[in-house]
Sequence to fold (528 residues):
Amino acid sequence: MSEFWQDTSIEKIGDNLWRGQVSERWNVGTVPNGGYLMAIAARTLREALHHDDPLTITGHFVDRALNGPVDLQFEQIRLGKSVSTGALRFVQDGVERARFTATFGDLDKTEGESWMLEPKPVLENPQAFLKTPRFLAIHDRVEMLFDPDKARWMKADLSGKPEHLIRYRFRDGTEPDVLSLPFFADCVPPTVFAKFGPMGWVPTLELTLHVRAKPAPGELLGRFLTRYLINGLMEEDGEIWDSEGKLVAICRQLARYRASTSFL
Amino acid sequence: MSEFWQDTSIEKIGDNLWRGQVSERWNVGTVPNGGYLMAIAARTLREALHHDDPLTITGHFVDRALNGPVDLQFEQIRLGKSVSTGALRFVQDGVERARFTATFGDLDKTEGESWMLEPKPVLENPQAFLKTPRFLAIHDRVEMLFDPDKARWMKADLSGKPEHLIRYRFRDGTEPDVLSLPFFADCVPPTVFAKFGPMGWVPTLELTLHVRAKPAPGELLGRFLTRYLINGLMEEDGEIWDSEGKLVAICRQLARYRASTSFL
Fold:
C-alpha cells in the first residue's frame, strides 16, 4: 500500500469527528511536516464536504504537532452544489495544533475561460539536477532533485536568490493526486537556505494552497521563491506543474525565519 | 470623522460577540466589497486577539453579504505572547456570509533578517496615470489612478496582460493603516478586465492578506497580476507599497471569472 495513503488514512468516529494518525515517516527532525498535516486534513474535508477537490485550503499552524493520534473536528460553513466550505480543528492531547479552512469543488465540472501568462518552466538539462543528502525521515518518502543553478547553496555558494526549482515524486511510486498537493507544497527546504545557508528554523504560520488541476501521473516540478523577507517574516510562493505541463497548484505561506537556531 | 473608521466601527455586545454595520458606501453595485468586510473583521479580531496587526488574514466568502447589521462571532484558536490566532463568523440574518481566520501580532516588535528581491516599482510618469469614471459607490470612497500602459483596456485596447498598477488613497483624506489594507487588497477592478474587457462578474472565493509593515501616510501603490486563469478559476496576486517605498502587504485571492454576466 502507498505510504502516503496509509499515513493519511482517517476513520469517522462520530458526528463531524474523524480520527487520524500522524506518522513519524513524514517528520522534519522531530516535527511532522505541515503539508503532511494539511493532506490529512484535506482527506477529511473531502469526505465531510462531499466534493473531491480542494480549490483553496488554508492552514494556520498554531502549536507543534505530535506523532500519534489526532482528532479531526469538522465544522460545516456552507454546503453548496458547486462548492462547499468548512473548517477543521486538528486536535492532539486536547490542544488544537492547527486550523484548516477550505472550499472544495469539482475540477472536472469547472468551466470557463483559460489563459496563462507563463508556461511550465523548460528544463535545459534535467539530468544535471542534484540529489540532496537523505538525513530526515521525510527524505525517505519523497525524492527531490534540485536545479543546480538555483541550488548553489548546496555547495556553500550563497550568491543565488531564495529560489528552488525541484523535480519531485514519492519514492514508493505513489502517483500524485489533488490530496497530495498540500504535501508537495510544503515538503521542500526553506527558500531562504539558498540565500542564507541551510541553517535556521523556518516555522510556517499559515499556508494557503489553490489546486487548479488534477495532476497527471509522473513527477512534479515545483518552483518556490521568496521575494520579501522583512524583520524575519517571509512569504514563500510556489507553483507546481505536472508531467504533462499543466499547472496543478499555486501556494503561498507566511513563515518566520530564525537564523540563529538549528535547523533540527 | 473618517468614512472608513465610521463604517468599520464595531460594538461588543456579548461574550465573543460584536455587532457591526455594513454600509452601502462601499458597494460594488448592490454588493458590499469583500475587502471592506474583511476590514470590519480585522478590526474585531484586533480587539479580540489583543494584538494590533493582522500578520495573515484569510476570508472565505460563502454567501452574498448584505447592507445592514452584522453579528461578528469570535472563536479563539490560540492566544500567545507574540502571535494569536482566531476565527470570526460574519453572520447576517442568521446566515454565515463569510469566515475569517487570522493570526495577529505586533509588527513593531518583530525582529530578524530583512532582504528584498524587488524594490517598489518606479513610476516614470505618475502624472499621466488615468482616472476612472465614478459609477460605483466605492469609487466615491477611494481615488484610483491607473498606469496608462497597463490600463489600455480603458480605451478598449485588450492587448495588455491582466495586470494593474494603481496609485490609490481614501478620498476623504483618511491615512492608510494596517486595518485598511484588506480594503486596498480588494477594491481594485478585476485584473481580467485588462485582458477580456471590463465586463463580467468576478466573485472572490477566498482572499488572503499578509501585512508586512505599517503604511506611512500618503498614497499607496498597488500592483495586481493574474498569471493563471484555468477553466474560469483565477488567482489575483497583489503587492501594496506605501509612500515611503515600503512593501506593506501582499495578497492573493481565488476568484471565479464569469464573462457572460454583467459586471453589475
